[in-house]
Amino acid sequence: MRRRILLIGLASACIVYLSHYSLAQTVNGLVSSPTIGAQETVAYTLEISGTNASDIVNPSPPAAEGLTLVSPNASRGTNMSIVNGRVSRSVSYTWHYRPEEEGSARILEANVTIGDSTFHTSPVTVTVVPQAQRPSPQRRSLFGGFSLFDNPPDAPPEVTERDIFIRATQSDREVYLNEQIAIDYKLYFRPGTMPRNSRQADSWDAEGFWREELDLATALTPNMVVENGIRYQVISIRRIAVFPTRAGELTIDPLKISTEVQSPDADPFNSPLFSQRYSTVERASPVINITSNPLPPGAPDGFTGAVGQYTLRAALSRNTLEVGEALQLTLTIDGTGNIALIEAPQPEIPGIFEIYDPEVSISKMGTNTLISGSKTFTWLLIPRSNGTFQIPPVKFVYFDPSLAQYIVRSSDLNPITVTGTAAAASATTVTASGFPFDDIAVLKRDPNWVTATHTPLHRGTWFYLLLLIPVLGVGVTAVVRRRTTRLATDTAWARNQRAHPLARKHLKTARKRLTEGDPDAFYAALEQSVLGFVGNRLNVHERGLTRAQLADQLNKAGIRTERQRELIKFLDTCDAARFAPIAAATSQMEEHFAQGSRILSTIARELESVIS
């Protein structure tokens, strides 16, 4: 009996608890302060009450105007309280934003999905004032007064090279021409320094190298190491793969960053727990020296400069077809190395096939150590005669630096059987007098003759117009063939013709990446649209050009000095935004997109005026 009463009591308590727990669902957007300094950050907290945490779909950080999101990853917390016998539980997501400039800024509405419902918050306005108007926090001791061990309030924190520095590690110091080198830039800092708001201090260049970015983790998790008896936390801030484009002794400029850090202090009263004083420091990596050796002599026929480790695959879309039908020959090169610069192998196609220029597609993958991927070449073939034909094995030659020798890869193809007949003149039977038999018409048996009333063929205008069609066709074919031949032989003219379409293509890609919220890919496409357009119009290889060399080429082309400065400043802005640890805001990316489009139009007009 007593057990039954106890069970009934527990069930009643659970019912009461659940009734009190089931409160209305509310979503609020809160900021840590409505007014912040120009060098401070504001915390935006999305507070969700009256629901189970399992029903919440992880929200995304809201967009902002005049503020830049520090990190897309939210800090998540839970809170449970009992007020007047009612239990309330809330889940919070917190992001931090830093101001772009002084004035009024806004954090736009946030969207939260709970179960099948979507909730929206109201925008929040934040005022950004000069930092001098925001008093610096005073350090206090555990006893409520100022610590006897504190530095004076106006004394800057002392941060030395021992407290924070950059180290660059490279996979090799001596390589062959066009061999891949992986470089990892790591930031070492003592736990007390707590770096924040890190950014690239100036433009970074690697003259004499083709460079590619390697993957870097979105969420940087420091590793603990001990260097010279000091404990450091280490994070990778940039990884690149470089390929030397010329032989000799080459150098890579230091990578410079600017960051805000705290002064490490062993005194517990002056530890970061009780002080939040930051100072801005700049750090640079050492210069990287690389020896690039020329490739050994004796390269086999067909070698076009590929260096790395590759495989070759060749395939035909079909092996049996009719005369006049089309088939595709596909060659795919997979491996590690500079995939972008691999040239198409030249298959030996029998003369009865009409062959078109190949379509090229590239798939690159930058892992944390190497650039790898595949490049595919697809030819369209049309047979003009029947029979069985064999395409010889396709060959691809590359240099393997690990073996220090040239490698020839080949791939066999199955025979091609072409059926049907090609169009040819038909044979005729002639009479004894020499006239074709088919030309003797059978006499009409109907004795009634009919007078023709239509206009004779040779008097009709349309007859002569039809005669012009073959002439026009031959003319159009000649023009197309001349253009195709010039595209294949005249590199400067071909690049000039493709400058505008390629620039529009890269701008379209940049717009798509902007819509998808991918800043790295956006700035890469935007920079390629401008830099690629200039390289195509001037017929120079834009990759590996220093800013000084680019300015020299623009000067030779007759571009005005102020336009040169505007272009180079824009490229530096894209480079800095692309590799900055903090992602750019959407409004800032829109502004850069408009600026890039304007620069393209201006340079195009100036080049046209110079040429004309």
Q: Can you offer a commentary on this structure?
A:
- This protein has 612 residues and is of the alpha+beta class.
- The protein has helices at 2-21, 461-489, 491-516, 519-538, 547-556, 561-579, 586-611, and strands at residues 26-31, 35-37, 42-49, 56-57, 64-65, 67-69, 75-83, 86-99, 103-107, 111-114, 117-120, 124-129, 164-170, 174-176, 181-189, 196-200, 209-213, 223-227, 230-244, 248-252, 256-262, 278-284, 288-293, 308-316, 320-322, 327-337, 353-355, 359-366, 371-383, 387-389, 394-400, 405-411, 416-419.
- Strands 1, 3, 6, 7 and 8 form a five-stranded antiparallel sheet that branches. Strands 13, 15, 17, 18 and 19 form a five-stranded antiparallel sheet that branches. Strands 24, 26, 27, 28 and 29 form a five-stranded antiparallel sheet that branches.
- Strand 10 and strand 11 (117-120) form a beta hairpin.
- The longest helix is centred in the last third of the chain and has 29 residues, at 461-489.
- It is globular.
- 24% of the residues are buried.
